[in-house]
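Subject: design request, 717 residues
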């Protein structure tokens, strides 16, 4: 059962008696304090002086030696005459006793047989003091080590609040509390209770209107464990179920090293990573004031604007980073070392899962880590974490000032590294989504496949959306840092071209950044201005941006011409597309009004359909014959042209014939006329035979051949 410390007061104080009565010879009614000295009310004068820090204890040797092995050795070593101021009094210096004078007072009371009140506030110091004084069972049964260990195991570790209080009290007991496993056992107890079902926790308050109980006096609430639902349903504390983050405020009071131990134990028990990240954010808000606050002004990235120099209302470390100078001295001071330890510890325990903490918190933590000069390995790891979720970042968080550099006001190189980490992470996600199960655990691949359609379309679309958001963020960042006159053209160009061209669907933001850079750097040469304008694509500018660029005197003339030409091309394409769309709409309307062939066939009777099929076959046959006749006609036409060229007398042949001397030329053989007419006759014969063959109405084949031969002879003669 979990129980608060207030309930311990209700059940009474825990008495720890001295045990046997064999030391009754030393009668004492109690301890009396006078200034910085303690005295025992006894008739026997003291013979032992113990100094613990600035406090002195006037005691007796015999009660202390009987239960403490350490005191026996110290008294024996201080018994030499040269060491003692008073020969009858032994002096022991215990400056290194854990728990100080308060713990030694309780141990001395125990040695005298007085009642000792064990509480969560003093048990850790008393347990360490008992170990230091060697109050073991070898000297007496039921000694102080046994009793304090039993109280720790059976009372403290079963209570939530007592475990917190004991772990808090162990801050000044190192390394004794670590060696005695007090820190480990309390951390395990807190982790086990934090990971339990919240329905089993009821809060020690009545009448709270909200889901979280009021925290009066800055203290922690006192949750109680209800085991198995034995409480009545009508109980007021049963009505409201505590939220999942009910333990955040309680563990945030711990020192950073103990908080790390608790969070590590909670991780090992399987707590949700988003709750662990939320607890880390809550702890940082309490110990690092101003870290989780959003910057009010959009361009307020300066250190002097941050509320880090203020003291938190709930305590915490004093932020001393703000100031005009002396940053190196501030980073090496004692409060800065404490802050650096807190920052480095928080970075080391952030869950590795994506979205366990917000990107804004990571960027503010990164800014503080750079200013405090944290370990480079941790800073690099934090940069990779920011790159994993860079698309969630806001511009004010990204405006991180340069530390130790005089060239630029903002750390542009850091943003360049963040973009590179983002691109590497995007590429890794694409590879893992294309081959799930090879580069990541099985539960990651199964979850990704459950929410992603086949082919990785969801992953690709999410990647494009993330790149588009990072592109808009980067354009805004470039517009902001371009006003810095110390920003070189190379850094601006490299950062602008760090993302692929597919990341930007519109280059208006990039054009705004380029124009701002040209305005802040009026001394650029023509070549440098052309080089600067190459980072943007004129075809991706909107109409308003094109109109502004056409009238911008800071742009090179060639860029203005490109902008106007690209806008003209866009207008032409838009007009062509609109006309094609109108034509397509008209054709679609006409096609929808005319019935289709299938509709006509469905409305035609079967007999008409069969007749139409036969007629279609005949039409195809006639089309084939017509095509054949056309080919033959073209061939005849070609031959006729050739004959006409041969018949016409050439001009050079006429005079030569007249000068022949009246002698007739001898025939050389068949003339061209006879060859042409023979070829023409054969074509006519073939045409007549083909026309008479299929019909079957002409005379016999022999008769047709005789008629053809007779025509041939008549033609020749």
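Subject: RE: design request

Done. Sequence follows.
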């Amino acid at each position: 059962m979990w129980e608060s410390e207030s309930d311990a007061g209700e059940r009474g104080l825990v008495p720890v008696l001295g045990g046997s009565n064999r030391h009754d010879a030393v009668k004492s009614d109690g301890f009396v304090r006078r200034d910085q000295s303690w005295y025992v009310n006894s008739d026997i004068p003291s013979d032992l002086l113990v100094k613990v820090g600035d406090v002195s204890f006037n005691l007796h040797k015999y009660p202390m030696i009987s239960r403490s092995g350490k005191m026996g050795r110290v008294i024996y070593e201080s018994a030499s005459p040269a060491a003692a101021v008073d020969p009858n009094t032994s002096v022991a210096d215990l400056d290194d006793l854990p728990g100080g004078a308060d713990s030694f007072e309780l141990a001395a009371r125990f040695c005298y047989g007085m009642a000792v009140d064990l509480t969560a506030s003093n048990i850790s110091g008393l347990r360490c003091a008992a170990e230091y004084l060697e109050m073991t069972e070898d000297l007496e049964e039921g000694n102080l080590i046994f009793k304090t260990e039993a109280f720790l195991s059976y009372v403290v570790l079963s209570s939530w609040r007592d475990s917190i209080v004991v772990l808090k009290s162990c801050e000044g007991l190192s390394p004794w509390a670590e060696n005695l496993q007090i820190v480990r056992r309390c951390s395990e107890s807190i982790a086990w209770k934090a990971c339990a079902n919240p329905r089993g926790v009821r809060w020690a308050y009545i009448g709270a209107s909200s889901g979280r109980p009021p925290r009066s006096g800055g203290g922690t609430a006192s949750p109680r464990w209800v085991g198995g639902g034995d409480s009545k349903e009508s109980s007021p504390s049963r009505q409201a179920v505590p939220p999942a983050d009910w333990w955040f405020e309680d563990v945030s009071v711990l020192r950073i090293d103990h908080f790390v131990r608790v969070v590590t134990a909670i991780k090992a028990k399987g707590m949700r990573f988003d709750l662990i990240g939320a607890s880390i954010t809550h702890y940082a808000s309490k110990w690092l004031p101003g870290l989780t606050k959003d910057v009010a002004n959009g361009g307020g990235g300066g250190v002097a604007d941050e509320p880090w120099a203020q003291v938190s209302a709930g305590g915490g470390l004093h932020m001393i980073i703000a100031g005009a100078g002396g940053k190196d001295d501030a980073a090496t001071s004692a409060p800065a070392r404490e802050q650096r330890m807190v920052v480095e510890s928080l970075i080391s325990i952030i869950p590795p899962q994506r979205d366990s903490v917000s990107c804004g918190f990571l960027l503010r933590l990164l800014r503080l880590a750079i200013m405090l000069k944290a370990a480079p390995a941790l800073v690099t790891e934090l940069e990779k974490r920011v790159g994993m979720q860079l698309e969630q970042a806001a511009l004010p968080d990204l405006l991180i000032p340069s530390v130790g550099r005089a060239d630029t006001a903002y750390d542009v190189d850091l943003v360049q590294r963040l973009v590179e980490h983002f691109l590497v992470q995007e590429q890794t996600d694409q590879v893992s989504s294309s081959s799930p199960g090879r580069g990541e655990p099985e539960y990651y691949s199964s979850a990704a496949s459950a929410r992603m359609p086949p082919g990785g379309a969801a992953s690709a679309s999410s990647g494009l959306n993330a790149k588009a958001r990072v592109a808009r963020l980067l354009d805004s960042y470039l517009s902001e840092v371009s006003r810095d006159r110390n920003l070189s053209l190379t850094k601006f160009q490299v950062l602008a071209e760090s993302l692929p061209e597919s990341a930007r669907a519109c280059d208006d933001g990039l054009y705004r950044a380029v124009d701002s850079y040209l305005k802040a750097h009026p001394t650029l040469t023509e070549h440098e201005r052309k080089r600067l304008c190459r980072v943007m694509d004129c075809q991706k500018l909107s109409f308003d941006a094109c109109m502004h660029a056409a009238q911008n005197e800071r742009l090179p003339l060639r860029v203005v011409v490109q902008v106007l030409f690209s806008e003209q091309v866009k207008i032409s394409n838009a007009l062509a597309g609109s006309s094609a769309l109108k034509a397509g709409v008209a054709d679609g309307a006409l096609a929808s009004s005319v019935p289709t062939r299938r509709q006509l066939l469905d409305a035609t009777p079967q007999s008409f359909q069969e007749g139409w099929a036969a007629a279609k076959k005949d039409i195809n046959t006639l089309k084939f014959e017509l095509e054949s006749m056309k080919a033959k006609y073209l061939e005849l036409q070609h031959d006729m042209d050739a004959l006409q060229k041969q018949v016409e007398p050439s001009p050079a042949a006429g005079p030569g014939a007249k000068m022949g001397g009246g002698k007739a030329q001898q025939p050389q053989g068949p003339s061209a006329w006879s060859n042409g007419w023979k070829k023409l006759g054969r074509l006519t014969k073939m045409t007549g035979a083909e026309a008479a063959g299929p019909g079957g109405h002409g005379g016999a084949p022999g008769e047709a051949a005789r008629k053809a031969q007779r025509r041939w002879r008549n033609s020749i003669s």
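The CA atoms of residues 461 and 467 lie 10 Å apart.
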